[in-house]
Structure formats: C-alpha cells, structure tokens
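Notes from hallway chat w/ T.B., transcribed later so I don't forget. T.B. wanted the structure written out for a chain they're using in a teaching module, and asked if we could keep both sequence and structure tokens in one place. Agreed to drop them here.
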Amino acid sequence: MSLVDRIGFDAGNKKLEDSIDFAIKNNFFYLDFNIDKGPNHLDSWDKDRIFNIRNLCDKNAISIGLHTLSAVNIAEYSPRVSSGVDEYMKACVDLADLLECSWIVVHGGYHFTNDYQDRIQASVNRLIRICDYAKKSGQRILLENLNFEPKHAEVKYLTYNIEECKYFFEKISSDNLGWAFTVNHANLVPEGIDGFIDTFGVNDIGEVRLADNNGDYEVHLIPGEGNINFNSVFKSIESMGYIGHYSMAYGDNNQKVTSRTNLSESYINSIK
C-alpha cells in the first residue's frame, strides 16, 4: 500500500457513518473516532447501527480505531471514581469488539503536584487490567505518548517523555500492547521526535499520529504551519520498516484531503 493510502485521519466525535462516507468518497482507509459525546456517544449504539458500520467498512476496506478520551484519568485511584474508569475502559473495549475495530488508543492519565508515584502506579495497574481484558477478544491497545505541560503546571500528563514511556512499556508486558506515536507531542520535549524513534523503533507502533506545532506548547497545526520537518519524520519511520498507518489529527475535511496529498508528494520528491 502506498504512503498516501496509509494516511488516515482522526474523525473525533463526528458521526461515524458520516466519517466513513467521507473516507469512501476520498479514498481514505484508516480512521479514528471517539465515543464520549455527540452522535457516537457510548449509549447510542444498537445492533442495526453496528451491523451497518461493519458492512460499510468491510465493503470498502476501511479500518477503524476507537480513541478513548484523555480527560478520563487512567491514573485515577479515588474510591468509586476509580471503578468508574475501569467500567469506561471495559465498555470501550466491548464496543470496539462489536465494531471490529483494529485498535484502541489509550493514555497514561495525569497526576497532580504531590501524587506522582500513586498516580503512575494506578495507571500501570489499570492498563495491565485493560490489556488483559482486551486480550480475550484479540483487541490491540495502543498507548499514546502525551504532551508536555509547563514546568509549574499543577496537573501534568503521564507518558509524555521517553523515560515515562519506557517505564510503562517495561512494566506492562502484555503482548497486545502497542504504541500510538504522536509526532507533535514528541516535538515538545528535549529528546524530540528522533529521540523517541531511536529509543523505541517502529516494531510496536500501531499508529503514527500527525500534527504540527512550534515545539513550545500543545497545538494541532496543519503540517507546514509549525516547525516539524515531516519529510524527515517519514524518512526516519519508513526507513526502519514501518508499514502501518498514519492519522492526521488536525484540520477540517478539505484540509485533510489536501494535506494528505501534500505530505505524500513532498516526501516522495524528497527521496528521489
């Protein structure tokens, strides 16, 4: 499959049927979606809707993945709230199974100033449970490297740098755990994009998430509007043998169509 065909998009909480229709009309084969609000809300699914979506995907060779919400704190440990997070994650896995999703993107959660160790342990333990739960049906869980928050921020994401990502991957030995490599997040830390690629390689990558920024704070710009060299990104990843898909996490539908072509053509021209 050519690079342009491997570049998909994140549809967010837009109605999944509409996103699939857009994908069909514009020859996209990969898309992520979210089920936390709007027309894809977790409680909005019935057998007919699930059947229709599976049928559309099968007929058009489209792979879909469920992207859980980073605002749901995987590192939660408070009584009752913690069990609610477990229920949420299991419900996501169950729906992904019914829809025959190819991947589920998850996050490490977040911590506050004085509870880092408790939060990171709660996160690791929960992700082990979720991987075990998903393994029963063969679902692949992809842990996303999250974004850096300012040094003096009270709330910070986990798995934002190489050290934390390495800790999680070492502690969670599940064979159905992979990596959702988010390029724009890696651009926010000193190790940078190449640091992540050099450390982890590409064998465990289940999705490469694309957006641009200027290396100073979290924002999802269209490639070319920030300082990320996407030709270099593609060269580093592709030269290591990556054959999976990419997901554009920016722009409206028209911008996605244009950007996919620009990214692919620019990279191909750069390696001639």
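Follow-up for T.B.: The mean pLDDT is 97. Might be a good example for the class.
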